Amino acid sequence: MTTVAMDVxxxxxxxxxxxxxxxxxxxxxxxxxxxxQANVLINGNSHRIKRSCTAEEAEKLLTQFSSWGIALRxxxxxxxxVDSTNNRPPDSETTQQALAGSTLSLAPHGDTIxxxxxxxxxxxxxxxxxxxxxx
Length: 135
Fold this sequence. Notes:
135 residues, CATH 3.30.1390.10, three-stranded antiparallel beta sheet
């Protein structure tokens, strides 16, 4: 049997202030969060709200946040247990079969993450202080 571990992320960058205010109130009410913690979750950054959960737990969170008009991002972080017939880790087909019963959708491997700013420019390196010594 294969157990799939998933991380659930909240990306609040794409929502307007009214939607974020409603989300903050819902987070405080549903999860009994203090206002300061709820404000951190809606600050425009990506936040992992559940680490290494099952597909069922992820589905519950997706349903709850969806009812609030918020989309969550789910990432498969590991598929544990080994195939008892040949003692090897499960392949991606086995992982996909484990997820077949859920309504989760995963981005293709290597796809970009929306609302994630990635600066791919190399850093500026100052070498003015370096000198060659002639021998």
